[in-house]
Amino acid sequence: MKLESKIPEGPLAEKWTNHKFNVKLVNPANKRKYDIIVVGTGLAGASAAASLAELGYNVKSFCFQDSPRRAHSIAAQGGINAAKNYQNDGDSVFRLFYDTIKGGDYRSREGNVYRLAEVSVNIIDQCVAQGVPFAREYGGLLANRSFGGAQVSRTFYARGQTGQQLLLGAYSALSRQVANGKVKLYPRHEMLDLVTIDGKAKGIVTRNLITGEIESHSAHAVVLASGGYGNVFYLSTNAMGSNATAAWRAHKKGAFMANPCYTQIHPTCIPVSGDHQSKLTLMSESLRNDGRVWVPKTKELAEKVRKGEIKPRDIDEADRDYYLERKYPAFGNLVPRDVASRNAKYVCDEGRGVNDTGKAVFLDFRDAIKRDGRDTIEGKYGNLFDMYKQITGDNPYETPMKIYPAVHYTMGGLWVDYNLMTNVPGLYATGESNFSDHGANRLGASALMQGLADGYFVIPYTIGNYLAGEKYEKTPVDHEAFKAAEKTVKDNIDKLLSIKGSKSVDHFHKELGKIMWEYCGMSRTAEGLTRAKGMVKELRDEFWKNVKVLGSNEEFNSSLEKASRVADFLELGELMIDDALHREESCGGHFREEHQTEEGEAKRNDEDFAYVAAWEFKDLDIAEELHKEELNFENVKLTQRSYK
Amino acid sequence: MKLTLKIWRQKNTNDKGAFKTYDIDGVSPDMSFLEMIDVLNEQLIEKDEDPVHFDHDCREGICGMCSMYINGEPHGPLKGVTTCQLHMRSFSDGETITIEPWRAKAFPVVKDLAVDRSAFDRVIQAGGYVSVNTGGTPDANEIPIPKSVADEAFDAATCIGCGACVAACKNASAMLFVSAKISQLSMLPQGQVEKSERAEKMVAQMDAEGFGACTNTGACSAECPKGIDLKNIARMNREYLGSKMGSSN
Amino acid sequence: MSWLTDTLTSSIGRKVIMSLTGLFLIIFLIVHLSGNFQLLMDDGGLQFNAYAKFMTSNPLIKFTSYGLYAFILLHIIMSAVLAAKNRKARPVGYAKVKGSANSAWASRNMGILGTVILIFLVIHMRSYWYEMHWGDIPMDAAGNKDLFKVVSASFAQWWYVAIYVVSMIFLAFHLSHGFSSAFQTLGVNHKKYTPFIKGLGIVYAILIPAAFASIPLYMFFNN
Q1: B216 CA to chain C: closest CA distance, Å?
Q2: Does the keyword Transmembrane helix apply (chain C) (predicted)?
Q3: A276 and A392 fall within a common domain
Q4: Sequence-separated (6 or more) residues with CB below 8 Å from residue C148
Q5: The CATH number of the domain where A509 resides is what?
Q6: Structural domain count of chain A
Q7: Looking at the partner chain, which of A70, A130, A277 has a beta carbon nearest the beta carbon of B64?
Q8: Can you give the pLDDT at residue A335?
Q9: What is the DSSP letter of A396?
Q10: Closest among A271, A285, A259, A475 to A362, alpha carbons compared
Q11: Is residue C92 domain-resident?
């Protein structure tokens, strides 16, 4: 099967405009004859559901949380990029496009990324019109900041809660359509299977998480906006409930999974404090604007810090190693996320980590406070410092913060074409659940942009192109394909409940996380990956023999929910390892130690790997088939990143 | 740390429910409250007992899903945090901790400590939005908004919809939640177009859901993890009365 | 008129009725107190009795007093309705409530405070208002009913004075919350004025009941 990206012909800047003209339209009066299922209510899902309903389609919106407003987009702190050039500092659609392509280490499609940059400006207009209270200057106009090392100030923000404000904006638009009767909400429902008929997506099977009821929902198209799979690592900045199940079950029904090994590790998270740790908390990247990252110069001194024999503030300047400033004098503490993360790992691997677990580095504000005064620093980061103190008990005004990288975002996801349709006709994937726009690494403040771009401004155009060719008749849910899918789901649940083993679901999840973090995390080797593959497979076998899931299906059963998600993570983890193993290069969030420059930087192999790796599910324990979509670069020149 | 936990257990909405007491040992002060319950649940599963069900998701204080009434206060003794941000260092060794679900007619218990807060969604559906469709909106900088107004609107908009205000209120009133949304939108020019209708509809829905009335005790604001101010309730009252008396709705 | 009934039966409308009637009663307290001070005049009650006569016979005052009774009743009935509704909003209570962590005691117990004040009102009305209208009261030198005598006789009893003083303490607590709460309900909450209103409320809640209580105390000890 050949993957067709369906990128429109023509010059880069005209592709989207031309495409919008060329796509088939559904007559306004006929839109009400089509039903669309949207799974997930984050930025990508809520914006899509609301916009599609506004157009006149009947939308069913699903989420596993108790309300659509809880989706994890809400936790994004930093901001949202848009090429508005309000600051008159030389930003443009092309520059945002260029930065995104370059930041993604040339592993994303030019056409998609350009479109993203193009619609970014509309997103801000839309959100302001909804009543999103973005930060403003004294003159009443919108404020911007430079984010994640960008050379221009293009990031719009709402204090440290941009994701929350944008999501509540999308949620309010969604709520309005619920009131209009165009959207029906299904909270506390989890999608457990995709239903395809003659190769086309025709609906989903869900479980009501309160009653356990297995329900079929039929539609003319299905949009997955179910987020990323970072929780495969157990510890991540994702929400506890974030999972890959919807995407993975779609994958098992034929949708290709693209670039699953591209995972973003965020350098500034609060370190793990012990075995009880359930998730990791991100501290905004903006902290690196003023904080200096360091560890003690010697192992011995680090040992003393860990034992509490010496206070960090008492360590002489000469005994401190500001390793980012030392290695990357031009960018210093503002090197990209992957570089900062990897270097933290290296100094900790050398035994110079600074907390009990040995896995933490300092982020010190002493000099910034000395330079700008405590009030200025408090004004910028007060809430973050409070949050840090809350969690760790340490006061960052007096002692340096301790930080360590954590899994934050997954660039990989379901393969989609330019229309955001997967290779399964009628099945779409938006937001983090698809692979499309960030390449091998995502820029800061671009996740919110992509989620909303997909939902507000892309899918409402492109879905019509497919639906215009579809018949109005809805597939009845007693169709054999639905019955078969329901049976698969029920059998799977029965199997989980019948094992009655001796180890809890969390046990397996934690074990999987440890393997993935160790071998498929910040730094990967062929040897480690090969070993990890065996370990994950073994763990999966043990899971299906020895997992303990109490209770029944017909109740609110948190263990059962988790078990079904972890079962999928165990399969996905293996595919991530396969993907990481096959990609014999380093790029963005994928660093293979075998492929680095003499200076220890990521070394791409554009000759052999400038493609999207799309994996096709065959059957359990049969290797997935690799399909390649070549990436063509006509507007940018591929360069090796250098932050020296 | 060693603790005694008195936890409300209720199989489902129709079950009567009762407290059950658990002893837990080896609690680290660095654990979050929810991680402590995780540990308890692992122990319960070990003993083939049904783990304690509770709502939680982001565990960083922003999704608003966690909802435990701890020792007589929503989200526990610490101010300005949600249950997931509450750490065990706020408790002392040997303490007995009583954990209950949010109690309100409009928030029926789903199981154990999890409640159904869809009433909040319905209140928002009644008018907690600006009626603009996607596309065709003016440039974001077309209408300047004074920084102070934008900041105040933001303060109201930080509500996470957790329901602690309802849980804390002796009348199970939802006025802080409802007023936060009414305030945010009525302060911004974009929201002012529909402000009178919005206040009327949202208040009507709030009453229909069975929430109580406000006694101005201020408990809601004191317990709100985001510190939403009581002035929002005053603003809602103004908007509501002004609209009822002045509009032609 | 459905919009009006809608408004007045909404949760906010009911609170507004509480607030407006409460504010009226707050003003009434000042009027009442200024009348009471005439008890302290050293004229054997002549001035006070003349005042009492005026207050019970002047048509305008009479009319106003009916309004007063209505507002007191409305305040009481509405509080009962609200209390019942509020109780229904939480059918299952908490096992442990730590109200002191988030609110003032008086604000949580306005119903109890109000009930005690209501009981006081009944005693108060029975003692003087009823006596004045239907009781067998001798005339004073000016030919007015000698209500002063009734009052000074009652305030010669220590337990009666005690009831008054204790009731005024309850009133003080009731006002300590009610005063500023009434403004909040009406939507008056402003960075500049609210601290002043709150301060004034506290001053009012202390001064007025203290002044009321001082009269029986003075008369008791002066006897």
Answers
A1: 6
A2: yes
A3: yes
A4: C39, C44, C45, C46, C48, C49, C140
A5: 1.20.58.100
A6: 2
A7: A70
A8: 85
A9: T
A10: A271
A11: no
Q: Taking residues A607-614, report their average pLDDT.
A: 97
Question: pLDDT band for position A384 (50/70/90)?
Answer: confident
Report how far Cα B78 is from the mean position of its chain's Cα atoms: 15
Q: Are residues A279 and A382 in the same domain?
A: yes
Which chains, if any, share at least 3 CB pairs under 8 A with chain B? A, C
- Asked, for residue A335, whether it belongs to a domain, the answer is yes
Say yes or no: B11 contacts chain A, CB-CB below 8 A. Answer: yes
Domains of chain B: 3-110 (3.10.20.30), 117-246 (1.10.1060.10)
| pLDDT at position C1 over 70 | no
Q: Is B222 on the interface with A (CB under 8 A)?
A: no
* CA pseudo-torsion sign B137, B141, B146, B147: positive
Q: Residue B188 pLDDT more than 70? A: yes
What pLDDT digit, counting tens, does each position of C101-145 carry?
Answer: 999 999 999 999 999 999 999 999 999 999 999 999 999 999 999
What pLDDT score does B249 carry? 67
Domain that holds residue C44: 2-87+104-222
pLDDT of A400-454, one tens digit each?
A: 999 999 999 999 999 999 999 999 999 999 999 999 999 999 998 999 999 999 9
Cβ contacts of C189 on chain B, cutoff 8 Å: 230-231, 233-235
- Quote the number of domains for chain C: 1
Mean pLDDT across chain C, nearest whole number?
A: 95
Residue A500 falls within a domain, yes or no? yes
Radius of gyration over every alpha carbon of chain C, rounded to an integer in angstroms: 20
Q: Which of A365, A380, A407 is the C-terminal boundary of a domain?
A: A407
Last residue of a domain, one of A346, A374, A407: A407
How many beta-carbon pairs under 8 angstroms link B with C?
A: 145
Phi, psi values for residue B119, rounded to 5°: -55, -35
- Summarised one tens digit per residue, pLDDT across range B156-173 is 999 999 999 999 999 999
Hey, is C77 helix, strand or coil? Answer: helix
Range ranked top by mean pLDDT from A272-286, A368-382, B30-44 = B30-44
Q: Residue A275 is part of which domain span?
A: 266-407
- Whether C16 is in a domain gets the answer yes
CATH number for C68: 1.20.1300.10
Phi, psi of A639 (to 5 degrees): -130, 160
Q: How far is A88 from chain B (nearest CA, A)?
A: 14
Tell me which chain B residues have a C-beta less than 8 angstroms from the C-beta of C15.
213-214, 237
Chain C partners of B172 at a C-beta cutoff of 8 Å? 86, 89-90
Indicate whether A273 and A382 sit together in one domain.
yes
Does residue C77 lie in a domain region? yes
What count of CB pairs under 8 Å joins A to B? 220
Whole-number pLDDT of residue A146: 87
Q: Is the pLDDT of residue A216 over 70?
A: yes
Of B29, B63, B147, the CB nearest to A70: B63
**Closest to A131 (Cβ–Cβ): which among B126, B161, B184?**
B184
Task: Using alpha carbons only, give the angle A179, A180, A185 rounded to the nearest 5 degrees.
Answer: 55
